[in-house]
Each structure stands twice: as structure tokens, then as C-alpha cells.
User: What shape does this take?
Amino acid sequence: MSPKIHDLAPEATGPLKGVRIIDLTSVVLGAYATQMLGDMGADVIKVEFPGGGRGNGGDIMRWAGRTPDPSVRDMGPIFMTINRNKRSLVLDLREDSALEALKTLIASADMFMASVRYDGLKRLGLAYEDVKAIRPDIVYVHAVGYDSDGPYAGEPAYDDLIQAASGCADLLGRTDGDPTPRILPSLIADKVSGLFMAQSALAALFHRQRTGEGQFVEVPMLECVTSFNLAEHFFEHVFEPPTGQWSYSRVTNPHRKPYATKDGYIGLLPYTDKQWEQFFEAAGWTERMAADSRFSTAAGRGKHIRALYALVESIIPERTTDEWLALLKPLQIPVVKMNRLDDLQTDPHLAAVGLFEAYEHPQVGTYTSLRPPVKFSATPANIRRHPPRLGEHTDELLAEAEVLRAALEA
Assistant: This one.
């Protein structure tokens, strides 16, 4: 069955409608952040560099992965996922005319967002003070690997490096007893830092709306991801002296995982005293558990969490997935059928809420987009632009710059 093709929205309806962003970010961190802002209505002008030392030019994620048509190589799958609602402007900022065009557009912008190294921005005359001289109330958001006040400042940073430096690569070893550090198989550091970048930009924009004052915002990956990691894994080292271990014991538990049923897997988490009692009753284990004081209280369950989860793991194979869902859902015990990646697009809930939407790109053809997940009752986010081809809007934006320049000179 062919997917329903959605039409692009005719105009922005989100809460950031009318906000203009000059976007000098790329790869995943910055592109993820600016897409979220674009979904919320902002006019995101994605400034990309031509080829040369950077190979084919533009955002490097344009060239990662296969496309349906080999002649349209600049629209790789990850790029497609995190670059909608943007306009692509290709400029060689080493050329005076290109730099002047960008500065003209900056004069009309509300935010300047970048992940280019700050020394490079300085050399181009695009440091905060330079941009502030063009637009005094600009919100300038710069993503970096490391806080500029620390000894790592200015060093290169990628997801793998930040996972290694932030303690994320230590988590699996604390779970399964294998001391070998391992990278989590997701771009956790990039995406978490992108979320920090987006929310920081919004906070600074809100401050400007209240006071008229712009500002410089630095978003350092290591600090953001370390704070994200330690939200629970600081655990008993929060206190001085520590009262116990690093890492939240319920989470770094080898038995914390989807549990195998007779025919599949479920995610299961009884949490309260009542839910645990109901679970063991539903499983037919009430009498056997009555004599086991380890699990009768929340404190006891916390102390013996590995044994408790191992016990659950041994019980679940007694029934099928559907049998467990039918048994536990009416009791309000948290349970869900496990999805593999292949299952997500047919999950009945995700299908009902329309998370996956098909669009027809004029060059790439049919592609699937994940709609903006957050719902605004008064100012809904929407999708109104396909991910752009490299330099697709260069002529359009340079024409806008000429109009702006003429207006400024008048």
C-alpha cells in the first residue's frame, strides 16, 4: 500500500513565526537544534560553504548514506531527517562580496547560531562583537566542544569523544561487569547538546523580548552531556563524603531490559508497592513471594534490585506478549510491547497519531519525515519546506540581501 503523501504547509504557524535565524551549524548537533526552531516557525537560513577542501561542499551530512537517485547525492538520509524548514545559502565567506551579503542578512536576523570554531568565526569577522555591531540585540548562540574557560577549550569534539569524556562510555561496563568502555550506539552527545542549544536559544530570545537585550550564549558539549549523564548517575556521590556508589543501581542493572515472552518481548516496570503486589498476584506468585521479605518494601526492592529484575525475567516467558498486555494493562501496571526499529512505522499508537508522514520531494522523490512531536494548541509547529538542495535558495536570499541593503542605504 502506498503511503499517503502530505502537502507542505503554506506558511509558518508556530510560536517562532517571524523570527529569522542565520544558521552556521552543520552535522547533527546544530542541525538538529535549528530544525526544531524551524519547525516552530523560524525562518532558518542555513549558510553552507562551497566545495574544495571540504570535498563536495555544504553540510557533510549531505553526503552520508545512499540516496534513491545517485545523481542527487547531496540529500543523504540523516541530512533529510534534520534539515527541513530551512533555506540553503551557499557562500564562500573568504570572498568580500559573500561576506558582505551575509552581514546584510544578519542585520535582519534575530539569532545567529554557529558550530564553526570560534577562531574561524573571528578570522571571518563574525565573532560576537562583530555580529553585535551589525545587530545590537542579536542572540548569538555558539556550540563548542568544551567550555571556553577550561583547558580543553578550542579542541575538536565529536560525539564519540564527548561520550568518552563525559562518563557515558563507562555505563555499559557498570551494567554487565565487562570493564571495557563502550560507546552507546546513538549520537547521544550530539542530540543532547542540540536540545540544550535549542532551549538556550529560546531562553535568550525570551530575555530579549522582555528587555531588548541580546547576548552571547555558549553551549559546551562536554558540560551539557556530563550534566545529562549525572542527572541520575551521580547518585550517592552527590554527598560529601559519598554515601555509596556511582550510578543509579536500578538503571545499571543487567536485568533492566525488555523481557522475553513466549513469542516476543515486553517492556515492564511495576513501580509502586501496589503494582508489585498486583504483578506477582497476576503471575500466580503471591504465595511464593509472601515468604521473601527482600521484595516486600520499596527499600528492600531497591537494595535487591538485581535479584528482583532477574526474578521478573524468569517469570515473563510463562505467557505470550498479548497475554501479558491483556493481564497487566487493566491493572495500570506499566507495560508495553517492545518494538524493533522495523516495527516503529506500524506501531498502532504511532500510526494513530501520525508521527510518520510521507512527502514528495521534487528531486529525491517520496521520503518519510517524523512530524514535530510537540503539540502547541494555539501555535502549531508544521512542515512547510523540504530539506533543501545544496544552495537551493542562494539566488533568492542574495536578492533579499540586495533589497535589505538598498533599504539600509536609503
